[in-house]
Amino acid sequence: MEVKVSWNGPSGMSFRAETGTGHMVAMDGAPEAGGHNLAPRPMEMVLVGTGGCTAYDVVLILKRGREDVRGCDVTLQAERAESDPKVFTKINFHFVVTGRNLKPAAVERAVTLSHDKYCSASIMLAKTAEITHTVEIVEV
Fold first, then answer.
1. Which of 10, 38, 47, 62 is most exposed by smallest CB count within 10 Å?
2. What InterPro entries does the record point to (predicted)?
């Protein structure tokens, strides 16, 4: 896996990233740091990737378990250290899983398997952050 990150130049603190699969992503800094607030911050992108990783796992595990899953949203709320390096210290994942006749135990199992076994991003972040999760099931 490879990505290339390039600074957009001296007019600010914006960057562009190209993934190994050819996708472009923009990042920008806060105005007080010279950015223009035109794109997500790099640490927000870490959370975005982690949320995508775990949501992917949860949906895949539920589908493989023949659960009638129709949607999966995950909201990550994170706290960071006060001083440098400002690593994540606490992250809560709130899952809202929608479907028909979803078994609560199956949904909880999918979330736990993601966090404990499959989602490399959340497992990596657990080295510095306390990871918690909540699950809400919505019948459709």
1. 10
2. KH_dom-like_a/b, OsmC/Ohr_fam, OsmC/Ohrsf
